[in-house]
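Please, structure for the following, as tokens.
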Amino acid sequence: MKKVMLYALSTCGWCKKTRAFLDDNDVEYDYVYVDLLKGYEREQAIETVRKWNPKGSFPTVIVDEQHVIVGYKPEQLEEALGI
């Protein structure tokens, strides 16, 4: 099973579409709504996102700490997840 982490914003439509895609394909994943975090937790989440995605945009999906998909890109998600 792949380790999937989604960094998203609670108000982002593309983030919601990405979550729906993962849910519809029965993908187990963890997620964080970065905009709902505060203080140190928020700083750490933003730092992690920028490590993988220097623009710091959302959604940012990290698969097995090897692949990053930025934005709502179902084809790239399918490829990275093997579905």
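The beta strands are 4-8, 30-33, 60-63, 67-70. Residues 25 and 78 are 9 Å apart (CA to CA).
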